[in-house]
Specification:
Blueprint: H1 15-24, H2 31-42, H3 48-57, H4 60-63, H5 68-71, E1 81-83, E2 90-96, E3 102-111, H6 113-118, H7 120-136, E4 141-151, H8 157-174, E5 181-188, E6 197-207, E7 224-229, H9 239-242, H10 252-255, H11 264-283, E8 291-294, H12 299-309, E9 314-318, H13 331-336, E10 342-347, H14 352-362, H15 365-368, E11 373-381, E12 385-390, E13 393-399, H16 400-405, H17 438-447, H18 456-459, E14 470-472, E15 480-482, E16 498-504, H19 507-512, H20 514-531, E17 535-544, H21 551-571, E18 575-581, E19 585-586, E20 589-590, E21 594-603, E22 620-624, H22 635-642, H23 664-679, E23 683-688, H24 693-703, E24 708-711, H25 719-724, E25 730-734, H26 739-749, E26 754-760, E27 764-767, E28 771-774, H27 775-790
Parallel strand pairs: 4-5, 9-12, 17-18, 24-27
Antiparallel strand pairs: 1-2, 2-3, 3-6, 4-6, 7-10, 7-11, 8-10, 9-11, 12-13, 14-15, 15-16, 16-21, 17-21, 19-20, 22-25, 22-26, 23-25, 24-26, 27-28
Helix pairs in contact: 7-8, 7-11, 17-27, 20-21, 20-23, 23-26, 24-27
């Protein structure tokens, strides 16, 4: 078989002709990459299918061609890490039974930014679908979801339209598949006006010896490639390439075709079917004999070449054997379409009948969804080449390793400029707080701010209690808390193991200092986890940045990578999963640097988890980690810039505040103190200090039980600087009977806790000399702030 048609020879063509061909055929290659493909890699004119395939596999989304070098500094291994950031999801051991068998958490973190900006519902829904399939393909049972969302200015009608579509899409997929929402984040910022961020985290569980891999195992020559799921259509064609270029408003309608179409109910059925097959394979001791991969970016092409090449093989795909939704689809579209709800197995021939019967008969795919089925569409080969045949003609023939390698760039970058302080060393600018009486109105403005106010109107859109594993819902603790092994199918000795999950990123900090902003994203995920009583064991990241071809934007990404790597190293947390999303840029500019961080925490017993609600009157309230008057990057600073959101004495355009400092040693010591004091039952409640600072943290701790507090500020100076800065820290309610033991433990850890005051039986929030307001007044502002603005 030879190439006889659909070949485009670059030889003798002008650059303008080549560029017109690439654009007209939706091929995600630059001019130089197209020439490299013909003249260096293939050394012959490529077919249209090869152009399309290399455009997808060589995109930023698939090949990490600009980021690979910088991601190498991340720590991806650790004593309990079973699988670092290498395959579709990371795996970490969190428990062992009496027989010594390990039980693991599978963690995946992905973004679906460009699709969600164009078609919000479908973009967000398919983002969830692809994320949970990554868990499934490792052999895991999906047990939790989290989403971290960024939108433009909340007063914009388009922002509210995108927000509603995205949230509906997440709920429209997550709820039907029966996976609870455990955690999430939400920020509104003008920097995301034309490029929202939709990042999703999924957690799964599995027994360690039942882990599946996304590559063909040793001895796989002659294995069948089995395509499972929905019939292939043209939806999502070019999605990976589309996600690797700037958003262009003029191509809005054209780009809609690059967004996949979700089918949550078929997705649920396939999750159940895949889980049941994993059990069958485990019972036969055959789980290690298959490769299993989700069809995401690049569809059949990328799944088949990656499952083959990662195992050291090649593959041959027969396009005519692919079940499809309609006749007449071009072969390269069938090959690279990103149709959802599909999987691929690399199966030994003796297991192939079992897999086909399992999906087609036991789970009746053809009857459940029109055109769905499981089919053999190709083979794993000992030859290291990737070949695709359609209509008796070879349309792709290339070294498999060249396809998966893509292109590698060492992009030039410019380090972000350092802020120069106009103040002498050791001094800070005066906090623009006006008279203490004005701080009460400032507090209420903060409580009602869209980036601080209650997220209940968001969380209530999601199913939070399906599966019966969620012990503490999002919003009640600094992390959602899960008991993943609490059913009778797991050994009794691990049923009390708890997990926590939190997501973090602050665009205000990252805009000011992309390195420090990335550090603080990791630090806040750490402090949130510790404040829930859990030990941080792993993080995942979704690194969302602008156009890497611009040295200034590439410099922001490099600084962010350094920050994440530094913080994870200093806090001893491995990165086990994540992705990179670049080209988050439009004609109006780039998004703020956005390292979206998720942290997984572990509790020996989920019943020992901490919440943020004050529990009893007359308990001492302590502060950990001092306030330094560093209010830069805070929501207060944002309100100050807006001017009209604060009382008259706050002048518009005042000097930006100094940014927080990070002392890893103090943060680690405070974290260890909280965990040890919590295990000794000395801590009744804990809340980390983040958006809104100490003032907002104290208020939030009173809302759950209407139990008040009376505190005084332990330092002279402007109270606003003490109350509203967002440097890392903790507020703790301590059992009075254990106060002396807590202070002794703190001294042992080298921590200096500051006594702020006590909880009180009255429903009031009192800061001596600053404010004295009812809990009801504060809570009403907090509860209504976001909801009112979304109406």
């Amino acid at each position: 078989m030879q190439f006889t048609r659909n070949v485009f020879d670059l030889q003798g063509r002008s650059d303008q002709e080549i560029e017109a061909f690439l654009e007209g055929s939706s091929i995600g290659l630059t001019l130089q990459e197209a020439k490299q493909l013909q003249f260096s890699i293939l050394k012959r004119p490529p077919s249209v299918a090869e152009f399309v395939l290399f455009g997808i596999e060589g995109s930023e989304h698939c090949s990490y061609k600009s980021s690979r070098e910088h991601l190498s500094q991340f720590i991806t291994q650790g004593p309990e890490v079973v699988l670092g950031a290498k395959e579709d999801a990371g795996v970490i051991r969190v428990a062992r039974d009496r027989q010594g068998r390990g039980y693991c958490v599978v963690m995946s973190h992905e973004s679906h930014n460009h699709p969600s900006q164009i078609v919000p519902y479908e973009g967000a829904a398919t983002g969830v679908g692809g994320n949970v399939r990554d868990i499934c393909c490792m052999g895991g049972e999906v047990v939790a979801l989290a989403d971290d969302l960024r939108f433009g200015a909340i007063e914009s009608p388009r922002t509210r339209w995108i927000y509603d579509g995205v949230v509906s899409g997440i709920a429209g997929y997550g709820n039907p598949i029966g996976v609870p929402s455990l955690a999430g984040g939400l920020q509104f910022d003008r920097g995301y006006q034309d490029n929202c961020l939709v990042t999703v985290v999924s957690l799964g569980i599995l027994r360690e010896d039942h882990l599946l891999h996304s590559y063909a195992p040793p001895g796989a020559d002659g294995y069948d490639l089995i395509l499972v799921g929905k019939p292939t259509d043209s939806s999502g064609f070019g999605g990976a390439s589309f996600a690797s270029f700037d958003l262009d408003a003029e191509q809005h309608e054209q780009n809609k075709g690059a967004v996949q179409e979700p089918n949550a109910f078929l997705g649920r059925h396939l999750l159940q079917a895949a889980g049941a097959l994993s059990e069958k394979l485990a019972e036969r001791g055959a789980h290690h004999r298959v490769g299993f991969k989700d069809l995401g970016a690049g569809g059949i092409a990328c799944a088949s070449v990656e499952i083959a090449d990662t195992g050291g093989y090649g593959a041959e795909v027969m396009i005519d054997q692919v079940h499809r939704d309609a006749p007449g689809l071009p072969a390269h579209v069938v090959l690279c379409s990103e149709t959802q709800e599909r999987y691929m197995y690399a199966s030994p021939p003796d297991l192939t009948p079992l897999i086909l019967e399992h999906y087609n008969q036991d789970f009746a795919l053809p009857q459940v969804s029109r055109g769905a089925e499981a089919r053999v569409i190709g083979k794993i080969t000992d030859s290291p080449r990737f070949r695709v045949i359609a209509g008796g003609e070879v349309i792709v023939d290339a070294p498999a390793c060249e396809v998966t390698r893509g292109f590698l760039y060492n992009r030039p970058f410019v380090d972000p400029p350092l802020e120069e302080s106009p103040f002498p060393p050791g001094t800070l600018p005066a906090f623009p707080g006006g008279q203490p009486g004005g701080l009460e109105e400032t507090l209420l403005a903060l409580l009602g701010h869209e980036n601080i106010a209650s997220r209940k109107c968001l969380y209530d859109r999601y199913d939070k209690q399906v599966q019966g594993r969620v012990m503490v819902e999002a919003g009640l603790s600094d992390s959602g808390i899960l008991a993943p092994f609490n059913s009778g199918e797991y050994p009794e000795e691990i049923r009390q193991v708890g997990l926590t999950l939190t997501t973090d990123q602050n665009p205000r900090m990252n805009r000011r200092d992309p390195h420090l902003g990335a550090v603080l994203a990791v630090v806040e995920s750490y402090t949130n986890t510790v404040a829930s009583g859990a030990r941080p064991v792993a993080i995942s990241d979704c690194l969302c940045y602008g156009n890497p071809e611009k040295p200034q934007q590439m410099g922001l990404f490099v600084a962010g990578c350094r920050g994440v790597a530094e913080a994870c190293r200093e806090l001893s947390i491995p990165v086990i999963a994540g992705n990179v999303s670049l080209y988050n840029e439009s004609l109006s500019g780039s998004i703020p640097p956005s390292p979206m961080i998720a942290c997984l925490g572990q509790l020996e017993d989920y019943r020992d988890a901490l919440t943020q609600n004050f529990l009893r009157a007359d308990s001492p309230i302590y502060l950990l980690l001092e306030r330094e008057g560093r209010w830069g990057g805070s929501v207060f600073e944002e309100l100050l810039a807006e001017g009209d959101a604060l009382p008259g004495e706050f002048s518009r355009g005042s000097l930006a505040g100094p940014l927080p400092r990070v002392d890893y040693g103090k943060i680690r010591a405070a974290g260890e103190l909280i965990l040890e004091a919590s295990r000794a039952a000395l801590v009744r409640a804990c809340h980390d200090i983040s958006e809104g600072g100490l003032g907002v943290a104290l208020c939030e701790m009173t809302f759950g039980r209407s139990l008040g507090c009376a505190v005084s500020l332990p330092v002279p100076g402007d109270p606003g600087a003490f109350l509203f800065e967002e440097s890392p820290g903790f507020v703790l309610e301590i059992d009075p009977a254990g106060e002396e033991a807590f202070c002794a433990l703190a001294r042992k850890k080298g921590v200096e806790p500051v006594l702020l005051g006590r909880t009180i039986g009255e429903p009031r929030i009192i800061v001596e000399g600053v404010w004295d307001m009812t809990i009801e007044r504060a809570r009403t502002r907090w509860e209504q702030g976001l909801m009112e603005k979304l109406l």
